[in-house]
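Onboarding guide, step 5: your first structure request.
Type a short instruction followed by the sequence, for example:

Predict the 3D structure of this protein.
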Amino acid sequence: MTPSAKIIDFIKGYEKCRLTSYLPAPNDVPTIGWGSTGPDIKLGMTCTKAQADDRFAADLAKFSAGVSKLIGAAPTTQGQYDALVSFAYNVGLEALKTSTLLRMHKDGECENARLQFARWNKQAGKVLNGLTKRRAGEAAIYRGDA
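The system replies with structure tokens like these:
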């Protein structure tokens, strides 16, 4: 599977394109472009829109491949796949790999898996409104409502 245009727009809607690196929340990691992170991103960095778009495409391909590997042969709809890619793009593949959300999805417990998105609305133990909204959106996409 590949991410749909709808989920690309969804991710970009939450990430916004910022050409100067920033901290999305206190105690977070430096971020640039369309929510890109990594050891090469330092505060004070800048990039062009073209560089941000290229990095987004590379990041999306990485998360897409990672989600495909993690879900394996589990039956997965496009909406479920898209929601898992958005989730992994935001919290990372390692967090998805060890999550109850993924285990339930792979076990076919899709309604329970959908409910797990809401648990991931905190950064450094603090509930963030933006994450609460994003997780609700991902849960709706996962269910096939969006």
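Each response can be followed by summary notes, for example: The chain is about 55% helix and 10% strand.
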